[in-house]
Design goal:
The protein is mainly β. It contains one helix and ten strands; from the N terminus they run H-E-E-E-E-E-E-E-E-E-E. The strands form three sheets. It has a four-stranded antiparallel β-sheet with strand order 1-10-4-7, with no helix packed on it. Strand 5 and strand 6 form a beta hairpin.
């Protein structure tokens, strides 16, 4: 029977442990989510973007967390056919155009920080700019952010 030196056995064992540690580290990536609401805006005219207040994280979100998916509900006093909504990161200025979808969910590439507030940007797009009568009042928009870190 061929014998192995202690150095070879130790080296093989160390390699196996390091490989297992790398695999375990990758498997331990964390996930989480937060829910927030945002109020406003009141829309007075067509073809102009109006910003809501912020929907903020409801708890502590790691600084390395990135958004992986989101769901939303836009609450307006009435819904013109040409409403357009974007959800924007208050710090990063990046976000998603969710179009005329009043409520929905989407999976996104994890590039936008999740540890920031977000706001809804809403516009009524029409061929000509005119005053809305009655105004469109927004409030109680709901946002759920899922993230990984």
């Amino acid at each position: 029977m061929k014998s192995m030196s202690f150095a070879r056995i130790a080296s093989a064992a160390t390699g196996a442990l390091l490989g297992a540690a790398v695999l375990c580290g990758a498997a331990e990536a964390g996930t989480g989510n937060w829910y927030g609401t945002a109020n406003g805006p009141t829309l007075y005219q067509t073809n102009y973007w109006y910003n809501s207040g912020n929907a903020s994280p409801s708890g502590s979100v790691p600084a390395t967390a990135k958004v992986t998916s989101l769901s939303w509900v836009v609450n307006l006093s009435y819904y013109p056919a040409t409403v357009n909504t974007q959800i924007i990161g208050a710090t990063s200025g990046t976000g998603w155009n969710v179009g005329s979808t009043i409520s929905g969910s989407t999976t996104v590439s994890p590039t936008v920080p999740a540890n920031q507030s977000f706001y809804f940007q809403i516009k009524i797009a029409q061929g000509t700019t005119h005053t809305l009568s009655p105004t469109v009042v927004g409030g109680g928009h709901q946002l759920n952010i899922n993230y990984q870190y």
